[in-house]
Write a structure and sequence with these properties.
The protein is of the alpha/beta class. It has 15 helices and 8 strands. Helix 8 runs parallel beside helix 10. The longest helix is centred in the first third of the chain and has 28 residues. It holds the Pfam family Acyltransf_C.
């Protein structure tokens, strides 16, 4: 196991574990991150309006590093703070290709932290700063984090097909012309899996004559089909990414548990599919996506029952690949701590201890506001509070 602060200090006793479990430290961590994000947002906004109209090339080059600085803070929490382990099954040649080219990733959407696991993979392969995804429009209004995604040119879906088709056409054409390789993520299920949504999805699939899945929602095909014509010739490969956590693990894969420093192990299987294998006609592409999700469902069933993606799924076994975590996310958070967090805490403490009621209220109000904004973001990530999209037949169509 690679050395990490988590494992080193934990071996010396319970002091480090108690430190991580202390909710007051969790709150301080969340508050500090929000101040950093606001600074990143400021520079993104300045570049978006001051540089992008004249040179999208240089805007995207610079924004890559701003995005990396923000995204890698989540990687830091997962890898260095909580000690998350990533077990990867992927052929070595595919892994090398993943590092270099534009890529389209289709991933299951079952867990609160599946997106963080995807970011960990992208960080270790050196492509984190240019990660993009199809996300719901409401996310862009989440202070600091949502604003950063907007400046990063994520594809925000309104779930109104006529509008979404125009958005997809416009942004895909923009993204494939990026100066560096991008990673575009699609969770074709449209929302995170819950028992209620799975039941509704299965009923819809039965009525529509589609494959009935037991671990995934019936995939939405329109966004995928609308994207294909604009990717051909620009993106050569699709990566089928299947993420699982062991259901009998007492520590559940939640954002709160990561912030509290509780370790989980993620299992990730990734296979490369040449884009030219996807039929060009809409009907053929739709059938292809449904077949892909049947395969993903068999892999999920195999993992749940045997702890192995390949044991009873009928899917050819992939080799185990080792990609060590890098120190960049750790260095990033240390730099922000020295430059921003330390003086910020100094001035906040001075405000609180100044003896002035007005200064005290300003300091306390600033901390409370940042804390509430972070709580809202965590709330949006919880499975119980995820989108209601997909719970009735009308929305499934």
């Amino acid at each position: 196991m690679p050395w990490a602060p988590t494992h080193h200090f934990a071996s010396n006793g319970s002091l480090y574990r108690d430190f991580k479990d202390d909710l007051s430290w969790v709150s301080k961590l969340k508050i500090s991150k929000r101040y950093i994000w606001l600074i990143i947002n400021f520079f993104q906004c300045f570049l978006y309006f001051g540089l992008r109209p004249f040179s999208r090339y240089f805007y995207r080059k610079i924004n890559y590093y701003l995005c990396y600085s923000l995204y890698s803070q989540f990687v830091f929490v997962a890898e260095w703070w909580s000690g998350l382990e990533l077990v990867l099954y992927m052929n070595k040649d595919d892994l090398e290709k993943f590092k270099k080219d534009h890529k389209y990733v289709i991933m299951n959407h079952r867990y609160e932290i599946d997106w963080i696991c995807g970011w960990i993979l992208c960080e270790r392969t050196g492509v984190l700063g240019n990660c993009k995804a199809y996300v719901k429009k409401s996310l862009q209004y989440v202070p600091t984090f949502g604003w950063a995604l907007r400046f990063a040119e994520f594809i925000f879906m309104e779930r109104n097909w006529e509008k979404d088709k125009e958005i997809i056409t416009s942004l895909i054409n923009e993204l494939v012309n990026y100066p560096d390789s991008i990673t575009l993520l699609l969770c074709a299920e449209g929302t995170r899996v819950t028992a209620q949504k799975l039941e509704a999805s299965q009923k819809f699939a039965q009525k529509a004559g589609l494959p009935v899945l037991n671990y995934h929602l019936t995939p939405r095909t329109k966004g995928f089909i609308a994207s294909l014509p604009h990717m051909r010739g620009k993106i050569t490969d699709i990566y089928d990414m299947q993420l699982q956590f062991k259901s009998d693990d007492p520590i559940k894969p939640t954002l709160t548990n990561l912030l509290q420093g509780k370790q989980v192990t993620a299992y990730l299987s990734i296979s490369r599919i040449p884009l030219n294998e996807v039929p060009e006609d809409e009907k053929g592409a739709e059938e292809w996506l449904h077949k892909l999700y049947e395969k993903k469902d068999r892999m999920a069933k195999s993992f749940e029952e045997t702890g192995d993606f390949f044991a009873i799924s009928g899917v050819p076994k992939l080799e185990r690949s080792i990609i060590e975590k890098r120190y960049y996310s750790l260095v990033n958070i240390i730099c922000w701590t020295v430059v921003v967090i330390t003086p910020m805490l100094y001035y906040l403490i001075n405000l609180l201890l100044s003896g002035s009621i007005i200064y005290f209220l300003i300091g306390a109000g600033s901390i409370l506001l940042i804390y509430l904004l972070m709580q809202r973001m965590i709330g949006m990530s919880k499975i119980s509070k995820s989108s209601s999209y997909g719970t009735n037949d009308k929305k499934l169509q």
